Amino acid sequence: MNSVRIPSVIQENEGQYPFGAQIDLALKNILELCEHLGFKTYYDPKGYYGYAEIGEGEEMIGVLGHLDVVPAGKLDEWRTPPFEPVIQDEKIYGRGTQDDKGPTIASIFAVKALMNLGIPFHKRVRLIFGTDEETLWRCMNRYCELEEIPSMGFTPDSTFPLVYAEKGLLQLHLEGKNDTSLRLTAGNAFNAVPDHASYRGENRAELKAALKELDFAYEADSETVTVNGKSVHAQVTEKGINAINRLLIALKSIGYTSKTIEFVSEVVNEDPFGKRIFGECEDEESGKLKFNVGKIEMNEEIERLSIDIRIPVKSDKEEIVHLLSEKAREYGLEYKEFDYLRSIYIPKDHFLIETLMNEYQEVTKDTVSQPISSGGATYARAMNNTVAFGAVFPHQSKTEHQPNEYIELEAIFTAMIIYAKAIYRLTR
Length: 428
Hints:
Elements: H1 21-37, E1 40-43, E2 49-54, E3 60-66, E4 86-88, E5 91-93, H2 101-116, E6 124-130, H3 138-146, E7 152-155, E8 158-159, E9 163-166, E10 168-177, E11 184-186, E12 196-199, H4 204-214, E13 218-220, E14 225-228, H5 243-253, H6 259-268, H7 275-278, E15 282-283, E16 287-288, E17 290-298, E18 302-311, H8 317-329, E19 334-341, E20 344-345, H9 351-364, E21 372-374, E22 386-388, E23 391-392, E24 406-408, H10 409-426
Parallel strand pairs: 3-6, 3-7, 7-22, 8-23, 9-21
Antiparallel strand pairs: 1-2, 2-6, 4-5, 5-24, 9-20, 10-18, 10-19, 11-17, 12-14, 13-14, 15-16, 17-18
Helix pairs in contact: 2-10, 4-5, 5-6, 9-10
């Protein structure tokens, strides 16, 4: 797991690299591994993506993984260094072990196991490595513009047994002129519930009293009051505690006012479903809409909220945008779209779904778990006939984007067997 040692967090336009030198290093590292294992490899000259390939034939099966990771967050919440793979209690700890370096490497060795057995590949198998999954997917956009698209495939970047529906992913800013003296920056990413938000302005004693009255956890020193939350992935925002929301609610309670403070405290509050904006927005296939304030910035000129919304597959994105824009306008905030990924839905009787499910059930003997829908955004959206397939099992905890991220050794070895058998079947 040398890949975990590379802190491949995005750094925009760092030198000649589109997403930073560390992400480029992670890409070259994985391609070097694949070449050593006997794959043919390709490195995009601009550094957006790479791939490793084996097999013969016109048709191609794709396995899509990503090598970029989210920031480590608060280092004091990690029991081990986030970018040092450490084995404890039959688990490997480190940022990227579950999302998505660990499962990607498991897929590589699943194919290598077939190669070692001398099994002929009647179709080509291409392992495609992305570098911008946690932000804008520019890696996959460039790949799809320039390269051959697999006829079908999977991404090992979610849960077992598999995901047949993924909600639409909308990321946006709400912006307005900052008419206040407040200066505030908090949050690391659209798609992570922020686990802390710090305030360094005046009236800190009043703020601490308000936080105590509201029963919001916080820490304080002589200069800073930090509201503590719980970080989870935005697809399950209801399982987290949003520190930005709590800080703004508390600031409102002691008399502070601004466009974002009013919007969050009055409209969002601590509701992870955005019901005061969208009503009861859900469908049977994919569940409830999810709403996450991931970042805030208040500088001399503007105040900005960065928001992540997971839209049910049967809901209309334009209606969601209309409702949010109208509500934001009431508070002097303007809607500015940052990114959108369409929803996907593949029927359960599709050949790909049935094949992957059969291999999962044969290995695990689990005939109870069924294909699921997800609010996650995986590379399955990038190409047709592609689904998310593992690598977290139904009984396991999802630790992606959290402190002390890990994978269980026994589980990842089982995932490798499933992937090997699935790739074998898909290439027959």
